[in-house]
Specification:
Layout lengths: L25 H12 L8 E5 L5 H8 L4 E6 L2 H14 L3 E5 L2 H7 L4 E6 L7 H13 L3 E12 L10 E7 L2 E6 L4
Parallel strand pairs: 1-2, 1-4, 2-3, 4-5
Antiparallel strand pairs: 5-7, 6-7
Enzyme class: transferase
Pfam family, one: Cons_hypoth95
Keywords: Methyltransferase, Transferase
Length: 180
């Protein structure tokens, strides 16, 4: 795994093999960050990375200058790895070891970008809980964006606040926005 752009461009990060993760591919990361780059100034936003896994998405935000990044994962090994990597590169990443759904129910924080990379095996009901909790608890700032990564076979277009989706290889990203 490598950081594809920004201050730490080209740095390789090697997570332990035993982590229960499926990292976002470099091609998909590059594509999603091209979209986000046209919507946000990275040094002015706050980011929530849910089901953070190896922290790959958070490292990309940090490398581009984002100072307010929170990673949530319930696996202690993932949290430990993210903390070690963030310390190594002096990245401003905070971690929370928690069940993602419990975090979404209890947090009072708001974010400009919420990136979610749950297990691809999630059911539509499990996927639908994510935007439901984000919007019900008003976790997005005005003009904020919820980005959900999922298998291309999963169709989230019927969920409330859905805006559009993009496919990259076997991965898809669905974008959700507040409708004013």
């Amino acid at each position: 795994m490598r950081i594809i752009s920004g201050q730490f461009k080209g740095r390789r990060i090697t997570p332990p093999k035993k982590l229960p993760v499926r990292p976002t591919t470099d091609m998909a990361k590059e594509a999603i960050f091209n979209i986000l780059n046209n919507l946000f100034y990275f040094d002015e936003i706050s980011v929530l990375d849910l089901f953070a896994g190896t922290g790959s998405i958070s490292y990309e935000f940090a490398s581009r200058g984002t100072e307010n990044i929170t990673c949530v994962d319930e696996d202690f090994g993932c949290i430990k790895f993210i903390n070690a990597t963030a310390d190594q590169f002096k990245m401003p990443i905070k971690t929370v070891k928690s069940d993602v759904f419990k975090f979404l129910e209890t947090t009072k924080l708001k974010f400009d970008v919420i990136f979610v990379d749950p297990p691809y095996a999630f059911s539509l009901d499990e996927f639908s809980k994510i935007p439901e909790l984000v919007f019900q608890n008003e976790l997005l700032e005005n003009d904020g964006l919820l980005v959900v990564e999922h298998a291309e076979q999963m169709d989230l277009s019927q969920l409330p606040h859905f805006s559009y989706s993009k496919n990259y290889g076997s991965s898809s990203f669905s974008f959700f926005e507040k409708v004013e």
